[in-house]
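Reviewer 2 asked us to include a model.

Predict the structure of this chain.
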Amino acid sequence: MTRRPLPMTAMVRRLLPTTERARLTALYGGLLLLAGGVLAGVIYALVQDDLDARFGRAVTPVPRGPRMNPDEVPPGSVRGDEYTVVPANEVGEAARTRTVAALTATTLSRLLTVSGVALGVFAVLSLFLAWWMAGRVLRPVGVITATARKLSGENLHQRIDLKGPPGELKALADTFDQMLGRLEQLVTAQQRFAANAAHELRTPLAVQRAAAEIGLADADPERVAWIRAELIKAADSSERLIESLLLLAATDQGVQRREDVEMNETVAVVTAGFSDEARERAITVTTTVEPLRVPGDPVLLAHLVRNLVANAVAYNHQGGRVRVQLTGRVLRVSNTGPEIPADTVHRLFEPFRRLNERTHTAGEGAGLGLSIVASIARAHGAEATADANPDGGLSVSVRFP
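Predicted model (structure tokens):
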């Protein structure tokens, strides 16, 4: 079976270097060889010009006689070339001129030969130097590649830590190390999130199981009513947790649709929905809003306000205060309550993070309120921050772009 001849493009593609080091070697070697060839040509031209100038001043030109046939050469003259004759009294000058011309030609020929040999040696040496130089330049890339191949979920703490002077490859290695740091934080946060989510989901299930085992041991009507209430509370807690997880996952993916939202109306309506709960606990809610239109998802923005006000009411004391302000492009919700250490405020935006330890009751919150607020804010290009109040409580601000 005969093989078809490869097309010209395929043959050229096979002849091209296949690695970056080979490409750099071909490039560096070609540039060095080109520079050597140009240098040899310039030297040849300068030497030729210098020889012509020097020998031209040292040799007197011999005038040529008229052109004639060799049979017509007069007595006392010698043949200068095929067509001209030189007078006998100028034969020495003619011979001298021929000697100088021959010496010039021999010198230039020798120079050309030596330049060619030197250029060939220089070509071999330039390829070797180009190969070595390409290896030195690409060594950090090899270190980065080897580190990337060894990385996995268990050794994300490893870094390249490239040593060397500042440069493009050093900047690339440092950027790769910074990316690994962010990736390690993300993976750690995801692992912690999964563990906390599993723990939070297991709590209502444990409550339901305990209520069923204890309450159904004795079919007393009061016990049946008690277990019914406990199971309903556990189901409500599970439902709220699952809705919060789904909402957090949705907001992390960004805003799918945008429209102009009147934030002042959203804040007023959502805050008014907590009036009954605040009245039961004698909490005073003060609302101050200014007109503000924000492009975004109205449902997500309503969730943002609802979570802020819900946290301000839930984590408050009897007879406390809640202040909701929308001024400029900043939504600020502050409340009274227990004192919060300043070094733990920023951690409240992490999922399942609470100020106090879990009580493992069915009605306990999941600790996702401020996490959802931060995620919705990021999805809308806003920034959520929190500060501990000097007299207790927390102030959360969302600054819209």
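The longest strand covers residues 321-327. The radius of gyration is 45 Å. We have added this to the supplementary material.
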